[in-house]
Amino acid sequence: MSTPASLPVPALSVRHLTVAYRDAPVLWEVSWATPPSGLVAVIGPNGAGKSTLIKACLDLVPRISGEVRIFGQPLAAVRRRVGYLPQRASVDWDFPATALDVVAMGCYPRAGWLRPLGRREREAARAALAEVGLADFAERQIGQLSGGQQQRVFLARALALKADLYFMDEPFAGVDAATEKAIVAVLRRLADSGRTVIVVHHDLATAPHYFDHVLLLNLRAIASGPMRQAFTPENLALAYGGRLSLLDQAVAAAAGAPGAAPRA
Amino acid sequence: MVAADDFLAALGLGLGHNATVVVLGCAAFGLAAGLVGCFVLLRGRALIADVAAHATLPGVAAAFIGATLAGADPRNLWLLMAGGAASAALGTLAVRAATATGRVRDDAAMALVLSAGFGLGVVLMSVVQSRPTGGQAGLAHFILGQAAGMAEAEARALGMLAAGAVAMVLLLFNPLRTLCFDEAFAAATGLPVRLLDLALMALMLLVAVAGLRAVGLILVVALMVIPAVTARLVTDRLGVMAALASLFGAVSGWVGAALSAAAPGLPTGAVVTLVACALFVAALLLSPGRGVLAALLRHARLSWRIARDHFLRGAWEELERQRLGPDGAFAAAAVAEAWGWGPARLALVTCAARAAGLLTAAGEPGFLRLTEEGTALARGVVRRHRVWEIYLTRAGGVRAFAAHRGADLIEHTLPPEVEAEVEAWLAAADPALAREPVPPPVEGSLGHGARA
């Protein structure tokens, strides 16, 4: 991967991370490092701890043990370089706000929370909306947007943060084909400009097409690495526990996928 | 009962100094409660506010007892309020502690603390009543509110509370908005979420305690929740909602206090709450976006459009069946039969269509003719239906009778861009057919009323 002389700093590295809700561990001794940039999928069955991993990295849930480094530093030191896209279902979309209001929430961390946004920041928010194809929906009440459009508003808000490392929790959950395409295009652009995007993903069929790297997670880190090396039937079986025939199909589909080749 | 003159005088602050103090004090409290309630509600903490209000009672009673034992003046309002604030804070902490373990659901925890706090307060009250200085202490007024005796200093304090609430919301508007909408995102961007929540809770507690005198602990939550809910009905903007909630709260306090000043028998808290409720009902009925009347109107408009389209298509198909041109006369009864309409519905639809200038009477009774406008509209309706039928049968492989049904279901709600796409498909697939103003019905689709 890289010469020992110039070891690149991983965007995210996690060591011996353990998280428990009440008595039951949700993540157990997870150690994992992402490449310095690129699109990274976190894949595993329901309840595998995928969202919890993201939340633990962002200090949103308490850790029992373990260490998280972002660009080699603790989160507090690099907070401005980190962006988060929560699950769409985690908020009440009947909230009195327009699409632009929500995207503007991504501008405040840089512009300052206690004063109104200046013209430049408002334009940046509009540009972020335009980037996800919602330029005409800026003044729309968020409750009147479709599910896919709401997801894209969340994505635009994340873009407005102008972060270098993004955590995205199921951005493809329950969206229409047009939205999926738009999101993939945005992710690709982010990766091409040297950013890292860590995405909780649950569609095994599309994972090898969309992502360069993968972490297979089920309570523990089952396997991780470049998609072609880690996304194998054996590893998937370990992560999902059986149902081999379905998994074989997914891998077979992946093998024929042009996007599955590791990117330069 | 209420003397109208007195009410108007109190409303215009002309009923003497004491009444004016009460009216202004209640208005200031209403403003603060409406504004703070806006964010409390959006943060999902309305029930916690109710818990805090009920949990003030044991603190008030304990402060009274403590002051008596210490030889201080037990009727000192500030002392009583401080006691109320302390026990309310304890109550909210108790709810948090009970839910933090994860063993008790938060609604159960809130119900538990609310009733336990109130029960404890009632017990302590009865202790107060049994003491010689009790009885007349007026502690009972804290339960249902009695603004009549409000001193100028109290009204001034309420004014300061309102000003403080406005200042804090103006300063923290963006962080509060982000926190209320998406706590996880707010925390991930580094906002001090706990501190913000604490500030909001502190403001809520202040309002709950400040409202003890004016509206009483049972109804204080009403002034936090009702103006905010009313404002939400009227607007989709948070800034406007906060301003309107303040306004509605202030108006409720003002009008309610004036009413109760004009009729001293009426408890202020209840009247203020009822005024707020009246505003809510008015907004529920009349709000342009979310109001009941607006929804009925929208529904009626959609029903009319569908009935009109059905009638026009029925008329067109009847004319085709009789081999008449678009200007021919057709029997209204035949169209009604095709759609299975009764005479009342037929009369209603034809009446409305004639009023809209789509139909005219045609000599013989029971026969109608399409006007020019009606013809153009009918042509569009029928074309849309048939093009969709053709698309479903040829491109979608749907059987003809099913295509007819599908077209029926979808044609009224077809978005214009989909319609354009289907038209483009037809122009490419069968240019000759696409050029016809109204394509013939798909073979086997039966047209209307199963006339086969």
TrEMBL record, chain A:
Belongs to the ABC transporter superfamily. This is Metal ABC transporter ATP-binding protein. Signal peptide: none annotated. It comes from Elioraea tepida. Residues 12-244 form the ABC transporter domain. One of its GO terms (molecular function) is ATP hydrolysis activity. Pfam families: ABC_tran. Keywords: ATP-binding, Ion transport, Nucleotide-binding, Transport. One of its GO terms (biological process) is monoatomic ion transport. It comes from the Bacteria.
